[in-house]
Amino acid sequence: MPLAAAPGQARAGRVTTAMLPLDRTGLAHWSASDYLVANDRIAVMIEDVGPSDLYDPWGGGVVGISRVAGGAMVEPADFEEFVFGLGRFILQTESVTVLRDGAAGGTAIVRAVGNFRPLPFINQLARPIAPAPFDDIRAAVDYELEPNADHVDVYGTFNVTRAQPVDVGLVLHGFFQRYRMDRFSGESGFEIPTGSATNAWVGFIDDFGASYAWQATDSALMPVISVAGFDGFTQAPIVFPACDQTRRRIGRLHVGGPGLDGLRIAMARTRSEALREIRGTVNELDGSPAIGVRVHATSTDDRTYFSRATTDAGGAFVVHVPSTQSARLTAYRLGDSVPGPIDVSVGTSTAAIRLGSRGSIHIVATDATRMTALPVRVQVLPLDGPAPSVPVMFGEHLTGGGRLHIAFPHTGDVTLPAPPGRYRLVVSHGFEYEIVDQEVSVTAGATVEVRAALLQSVDSTGIQCADFHVHTSRSPDAPDPARDKLRSLVGDGVEIAVRSDHDYVADFAPLVRELGLERWAFPIPSLELTTFAWGHFGVVPLAPDPTRINAGAPDWTGRMPVDVFNEARARPGSPTVIINHPRMGGAFGGYFEAVRFNRDTGTAGNAAMWDTQFTVVEFFTDASFDHNRDTTVADWFSMLNHGRRVFAVGSSDSHQVIPSSPVGYPRTCMFLGTDDPRALSASAVRDAAAQGRSVVSGGVLVTASVGAAGPGQEATGVGAMARVSVTVQAPQWVPVERLEVIVDAQSRVIRTLDASTRDPMNPTVRFRGEFDVPVLASGSWLIVVAEAAGDLAPVHPGRNAFGVTNPIFLRR
């Protein structure tokens, strides 16, 4: 009964289903049969021996952290994953056991035993910087919890059989964590350390649950890498004596909470450091309690960040600071002005903060034709000065881009607070609708009412659009909860919701049902197969299997691409493989770079890694046609010229919607014969993408046909000259300046698009007409591109407007 520890006791044992805490995010990986060390304050779960989810495949590591109250685990941390390694080697756990259950008093201990082995996902990539082998070292890792402690000490006993000492130059302390729990250090607050900065400890903060800090033994932590949600630190080198067993403390895991202030209290108890408590209130201007306001405590010179707390339903807060230092308190809440800070001297233990005046904007968005509620993107931009802000070290997730708010009300109804002043309000619903763009004035204590009726001006009959590359907080490098990501997806007018988290199969379907969004979104389960050696790949559709590791993600480690792709294609639903961002700046993310694709020959330098079956490539990843013209577009044209029929998709690879990674730029718009997402099937979407029955839209919808043949199809009997019919559409807020017809990689038609080319009866139609293009005796292909140098402001500033068809194949 590991949760039966009374004050002065610690326990270790196995977890049962009844003991598991509430998983508020749905992302936890603990389970019954895992192990637990607990006292009356904290609990740390250690995973049973593998196979294991996420990136450590072997178990034996920490899988959950929580506080303890009333004999139960409460307020668990949104914990993800932590690994300790010797270079690129971590423990391949063979057994986990209770070494000491604490029933007789004293320390409770859980032990994991195994040999060090290369961490599979990083082995090849890390070999050049950490070449030394440590697979002959066997170790026991002990998780030790004492009665009345706020920390677990992690010890390692390392068995060395070499005749010479073992010098470990790179000692890895690695965390997949900071996009689910804000990273914190005592030296720089919530700012991410750079360069040669060192940290006595590094913490991860959950404002709604337990938080934790990791402290290495006898050494500061030095950052060595921070990429894709992974933070790697090292410490002073370790030397293990020859032919000996060495026991040493690997580190100390401090646990407290909820939030940073609770962690600070726990660490201060462990270190016998004196803190003083500041109690206070935050009130609205009218004196009523201000709820949900974050209060930040820093030194009075603003150089050192102490702690933070959030006001409760009565507007009260408690924050702890060093007992011998004065503190400066700053209050922040999204949508409010930031009141001047209050200094609290050493002899003062209370503070009262009053917020400034504010009003609000109430937006109700509807479809102007149907007069029904419409999911939208709402942006509020201050016109009288910059949006309220606070220093980066505070760790607030600011809207950015000069915006006070970016919101995605999936019901079309939202009320947003704002300080008095003038604002630009932009309400949008993707690339088929006109926008509402107007100025509003907010006065103190009043609500501005805005009725935003958006007109669907682009005719997309029978066409629905997908973003095949969307990350949620299931990915270690994305902070957006799936619910928020789905709201943004429907708000920006994407009908086909494909969830593609790194190496974990997931589905938006439960959330579509929960939020009642069936009218707006058709969910397709998927993943991004994320190798660290030969690129990233979408597998669509791929249903989650909760009985398998990472819900059924194909295991790519140590395997060749063709074998992995064939396994994926053989799964139920016959998924198609999408080559994601084929040139991402190295083999880590770019398949074409990994295989050394040669545009001159249309072949791969590494033929053993080249797959001959894929037909779908993400040639447009959060970028326009012109941006990619000399890179992925050139690859596409090479493959088409060499007879390989491959088709483009455009996807966002969105990781963090706010401030600037929108879902659906660009998007893949498929000819599916229906406008109702409820009428779709995963197989129909798969086939439309795999067969090129689609166009890519970055704000512009381009359709083309040669006779009855459209994108992805073949027109036969066209003769030496083929006539292509082209229509270019875009809502009036989207610029379109140029039309280009490309045949066999050569520009055959270039037409300036301006007021003279618009349909006088429908200004959304920027061009409608026909062109004659030459056809080679051996056959040709053509695509049509429309684009602009201008961007998609005010909806997506900085992203250029464009649209491109998939190829139509021509035969004389």
Features of the shown structure:
5 domains; 12-stranded antiparallel β-sheet; 812 residues; Beta-galactosidase, Chain A, domain 5; mainly beta; Immunoglobulin-like; 10 helices
Give a topology summary:
Layout: E1 10-14, E2 35-39, E3 42-46, E4 62-69, E5 72-74, E6 81-86, E7 89-100, E8 108-118, H1 123-126, E9 138-145, E10 151-160, E11 166-168, E12 171-176, E13 182-185, E14 202-205, E15 211-216, E16 222-227, E17 230-234, E18 238-240, E19 244-256, H2 259-271, E20 275-283, E21 294-298, E22 305-310, E23 316-322, E24 327-332, E25 342-344, E26 350-354, E27 359-367, E28 377-382, E29 405-407, E30 413-418, E31 421-428, E32 436-442, E33 447-454, E34 463-467, H3 482-491, E35 496-499, H4 509-515, E36 522-525, E37 527-530, E38 536-540, H5 561-569, E39 576-580, H6 591-594, E40 597-598, E41 603-604, E42 616-621, H7 625-628, H8 632-641, E43 647-651, H9 657-660, E44 667-671, H10 682-690, E45 694-698, E46 701-705, E47 714-715, E48 721-729, E49 738-743, E50 746-752, E51 765-774, E52 780-792, E53 796-805, E54 808-810
Parallel strand pairs: 20-26, 27-33, 34-35, 35-36, 39-42, 42-43, 47-54
Antiparallel strand pairs: 1-2, 2-3, 3-4, 4-5, 6-7, 6-12, 7-8, 8-9, 9-10, 10-19, 11-18, 12-17, 13-14, 14-15, 15-19, 16-17, 20-23, 21-22, 21-24, 24-25, 27-30, 28-29, 28-31, 31-32, 34-44, 37-38, 38-39, 40-41, 44-45, 45-53, 46-48, 48-51, 49-50, 49-52, 52-53, 52-54
